[in-house]
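call fold(seq) -> C-alpha cells
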Amino acid sequence: MVGERRPLAWLLVAVLLGCSTTHATQEPGPPPSGPALPVAPIGHQGRWLTDAEGRVLLIHGVNMVQKDAPYTPASAGFSDADAAWLATNGFLVVRVGILATGLMPTPGVVDTGYIQQVAATVSDLAQNGIYSLIDFHQDGFGPAVGSDGFPPWMTLTGDAGNDTDAGFPFYYEQNPALQQAFQSFWNDARDLDDAGLEDDYAAMFSAVATQLAGQPYVLGYDLFNEPWPGTTWSACLNDPGGCPTLDTGELGPAYAKAVSAIRAAGDHHLVFGEPFNLFNFGLSTTSMPLPGGDSNAGMSFHVYPLTPNQAAVGVGNAVSWSTSTGGALLNTEWGATESAETLVPESVALDSALVPWIFWSFCCELVPSLQEAPGGTNLVASTAAVLIQPYPLAVAGTPQQLTVDPTGETLSFTWSTAPVAGGSFATGTVTSFEVPALPYSGGYTATVTGGWITSAPCAPLLTVAAKPDADTVTVEVAPGGSCT
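ret:
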C-alpha cells in the first residue's frame, strides 16, 4: 500500500528538521510483525474502531466540507498537496462533505458526475494513506430556509413563516419554516418527485455507496450532520434525558432507511448516526437507536460545550451511549475556533476519554487558505500547536490511559496487551504512534515499559512491540534527546 511507504519519507523529513529519538535502554527485541499503519477495512469492537489486524484505532483527522456550489473539496482548492501535508502531520482521516444540493439538484435525479468528483477526492486521499468519512452535511436544512444541505424542492415548509434574518445557529430556534422543513422530513412527506423525503435521502446514499463500496480507504458514512428535531424541538432542550420518543420515532426510521440503502448497494463500511444537535452542548443524553440495528454501526458526535470545561460531560454522554448499545464511537466535530483556551480542554477531554476525533475544520481554523500550500504563514499557529501532537494510532491491545499535554508536547499512554476482540496477537505485532516532526524540532525521547521500540531513531511513526510476558505496556514521549 502507498501508506506503508510513508514512514521512510517521514524519516528523511525528520532528519532534515533535526528530530531525534532516544530509546529506553533494553535488550534487543524480536523483529516487528505486520504493518505499522492501519489496515483496511476499518470495523469496530464495541466502542473501539479497529483495523483488519484487530488493533484499536485512535485516529485523528480534520473536516473538509465545501458548502458552496459545486460542493466539492476540489472546487474549494483542496489538493494533493493538502493531503500530503495532512499525512505528514499525523492526520489520517478526513471527513469529506457531500450535500444533497449537489447529489440530487433536480427531483429524483442523482447527479453521478458530482459523486465522481467526490470519489476523486477520496482516491487522492487514499493515495496519501488517508481514510475518508463520507459526511451527509447540512446546516439549517438547506439554503431556502437556512444555510446549506437539501435543495429547495425538498424543503417543504407549508404555511410556516420563513424568518431568513436569523443566522446560524439561531435560525434553528427562530425560523418556523426551518423547523417545519425538518418536521416534513421526519414525517417522510411527499415531495416534488412524489417520493417520500426519506426515500429520496436513502436513494442518495444508494448512489454514493454504489460508487464507493469497493474503496478500502473509506472509513464509513456519517448519515446526517447535526439533525434538528423539527417543530417539537423544545422537548430535547428541557429534559436532561433528551427526547427519547423523537430519537426512536424520527432518527431511528430515517437512519434505518439510509443503512438499508447502503447495504443493498453492497457496501459494508461503517455507518454512523448523529444524535439531535442539542446533544452537542453536553446538556442532555440521547436514546438514538443503533443505526439500522446494524452490526457495523455507531455514533458520530460533536463537542461544542457552552464553556470549554464542560467538554468532558458531552464526551461522557457519548461513551455512555456506546456502552448501552455496543455501537462504535467517533467524534466528528470539535473546535471551530483558533483559540487555544478552548482547544486545549476540548482536546484533553477527547484524548483522556480515548475517543478518536476529527477537528472542525481544515480550512480555515488550521490552514487559512486552500489557495496556497499549507505551512509557514499559511498555518494557524495556535491551532497547529494543539492539534499536531503525538498520539497512539493503532493499538495492539486495549487502551487504558492516555495523557497528552499539548503545551508541554508530552504523551503518556498505557494499554493492555489483550485484544479487544479476544484471542491474542502474533509476537511482534506493533502498536504505532504518530509523532509529527513539527513540534519536535529539537528532537524527542521515547521510553517504553513492558515492550521494545521497533522503529528507527527519529521515526515520525514510532512503533512498539509488547514483550511476550507483558500484560500492559506504557510509552512516554517528551521533547529532547538524540538520534543515537
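The first strand starts at residue 21 and ends at 22.
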